[in-house]
Amino acid sequence: MQFVFAEIIGWEFLLVIAIVALLFGSSQIPKFARSIGEASKELKKGMAEGQADDAPGDQPRPAPDAAASEGDTPPPS
């Protein structure tokens, strides 16, 4: 699968930017860019926290499963 955006270069990119500016207005573009930056920062922060939570030394051992101990007793007749 080939990405379409990888082929948009030069004047085509400028045309897309101009259309976006006409649709959203020049005052909305900085707000949009700022919100994308904040979302990216939050995503990176969440990924770092997730990796810290997944560290092997920090996790306690799982408790023994209750179903496993029930398998030792015979079923009621």
Indicate the proportion of strand residues: under 5%
- Mean residue pLDDT: 76
Which descriptor suits the 3D outline? Answer: elongated
**Alpha-carbon Rg, integer:** 27 Å
Helix content estimate? 55-70%
What is the succession of H and E elements? Answer: HHH
Broad structural category: mainly alpha
Description:
This protein has three helices and no strands. By secondary structure, the protein is mainly α. It has a domain at 9-48. The N and C termini lie far apart (60 Å). The mean pLDDT is 76.
Key terms:
3 helices; 58% helix; 77 residues; mainly alpha
Provide a concise account of the structure shown.
The chain is mainly α. Helices cover 58% and strands 0% of the residues. It has 3 helices and no strands.
Question: Helices, strands, pairings?
Answer:
Layout: H1 11-24, H2 28-53, H3 66-70
